[in-house]
Design brief:
Length: 240
Amino acid sequence: MDGVGSFGAGRTGSTLDPIAFAKQPQTILRVLSWIFSLVVFASIVNEGYVNMGSERLHCVFNKNADACNYGVFVGLVGLLACSFFFLLDYKFSSISSVKDRKKAVMLEVGFSGFWAFLYFVSFCFLANQWSRTTPDELPLNQGADAARAAIAFSFFSILTWAGLTVRAVQKYLLGTDMTLFTSEHMDGSAPAQPYPSNSPGGTTTGTGTAGSGVEGAADTYQNPPFTENNAAPTYQVPIY
């Protein structure tokens, strides 16, 4: 796993390749979810309400305002959430703290799974209300295409958000690569480097081959070859 850090991201501070980022399955699913949410939201807002001979607008889904409101809510929040998580994915490798990365992944898992469920409810709710809509309630099929688009892209959104949930769960299970991150990185700080011992009794451990008989420790200090105890030779005057 060269170049892979905690929770599937690159090493902290590594340069992110925009082309490689755009080709990731998670990025593709995120863009598709953004487009599908935009279609659901825009279809209901633009053509989801019709005027039937009065100034009051009625929802095309069996005149049930709750159906239109629910579709607008799911589409708008899904649109904003896709934008937020897209930015989070792009900045994920710059997050140094493993705890913060874990929180971000857990947030993505929870939200993606929950929004896939809400889109499933949206698909069932809108399809049920559309099946109960009579042709008399929509003269000239006003808003019919928008209603079908909202239902269809609600179904597509179930698939994309479910895919994002699976990808987030895989990222969470990948966890932390302990060969790149030590326990000191859990709070985002760098590990402290030990200082060498300067005490006279300090030893240096070495590795030797088996059976060599070489000891693995050596004295830090050694006595100099010449000491002050060696007295200088005296000169004797010769006697004639």
